[in-house]
Every structure is written in structure tokens, then in C-alpha cells.
Amino acid sequence: MLFPMKYVIDHYNITAKTLRFYEEQGILPNISRDKKGNRVYSEPQLDWISFIRCLKETGMPISKIKEYKEAYEAGNSTYLERETMLKQHKLDLQKKIEESLKHMEEINYKLAMYELQKDEVRKNPNHNFKCHGLEVQATGQAIQAE
């Protein structure tokens, strides 16, 4: 079964421009056309589009995706190379996730500081708001926190 570009756009959260770009870059090859000349995609191509998106949205550059695709097309002789590429990508992604979680913790801490001081700031316009290692006077001037 073949699927029109509109189906791919609607079901894979991808733009026509991106699909054409992937085709131009050689990471989405052999796209067929229907009788009207419109691009149509096979089920294996839809699986590949999904995987391209997975890799791209998790930070793999197009050049690496292309390298992976070329290794895949070379056959089983590149099995270990491809596995290594995916393992490294997974490690890189895990590191980014851990960094993002640390950033989330810091943001949550700052939001808790806002919550703790919310009533005091409302009651007392002269309250020195404490957050970010600075105190902010009611005038908006930052002063060094002790």
C-alpha cells in the first residue's frame, strides 16, 4: 500500500518541506510518484521516516543519520558499526536527559522559592524577594544576598 504525502504529514508530524529535504539529502531515497506526479510512500518508508524523526529529534545530526543509512544499505557487514552508532547516540541522549533533569530540579527549586515568598511579597511591598542568590528590593534593585 502507498500513502500520499498528506497522510505522512498528518500522521507523522512532519512537514512537506522536511520530507523533500530528507529526500534531497539522500536519507529518504527512492520515493515513488503517483500518476499525477505526487510523492507516495510505502510502509517501509513510513517506518524509516519515523526512525529518522526519532534520531533527529533526539539530537542526531543529518550527517550522522545519512552515515547510518549508508551503513545500513551496505548490509550485514556493517551490523556492529550501526549498533555502535546507536549505542553512542543512546549514551549522548541519556547524558542530555540527565542534564535536563538537573535543570528541571533547579527550576523547581526556584518556583518553590517564589511560592514560599508569594504571600509575603503581596502583604509587604517592601519585602526583599530572595531568589537566584540575589535579593530584589521593592524598587527592583538587585542586592547581593547574604
CATH fold naming of the largest domain:
Multidrug-efflux Transporter Regulator, Chain: A, Domain 2
CATH class of the largest domain: Mainly Alpha
Reading the helices and strands in chain order gives EHHEEHHHEEE
The low-confidence runs, each spanning 5 or more residues with pLDDT under 50, are none
Estimate the mean pLDDT confidence.
89
Oligomer: single chain
Structural class by secondary-structure content? alpha+beta
Helix content: 55-70%
Number of strands: 6
Biggest sheet overview:
3 strands, antiparallel
Strand arrangement within the widest β-sheet reads 1-3-2
Please work out how many helical segments DSSP would assign.
5
Outline the structure in words.
Strand 4 and strand 5 (134-136) form a beta hairpin. The radius of gyration is 25 Å and the shape is elongated. The mean pLDDT is 89. It contains 5 helices and 6 strands. With 146 residues, the protein is α+β, with helices and mostly antiparallel strands. The strands form 2 sheets. It has a 3-stranded antiparallel beta sheet with strand order 1-3-2. A 3-stranded antiparallel beta sheet has the order 4-5-6.
Give a quick summary of the entry:
The chain is 61% helix and 12% strand.
Key terms for this structure?
Multidrug-efflux Transporter Regulator, Chain: A, Domain 2, three-stranded antiparallel β-sheet, 146 residues, 5 helices
Question: How would you summarize the topology of this molecule?
Answer:
Elements: E1 2-4, H1 5-12, H2 16-24, E2 32-33, E3 39-42, H3 43-57, H4 62-73, H5 79-123, E4 129-131, E5 134-136, E6 142-144
Antiparallel strand pairs: 1-3, 2-3, 4-5, 5-6
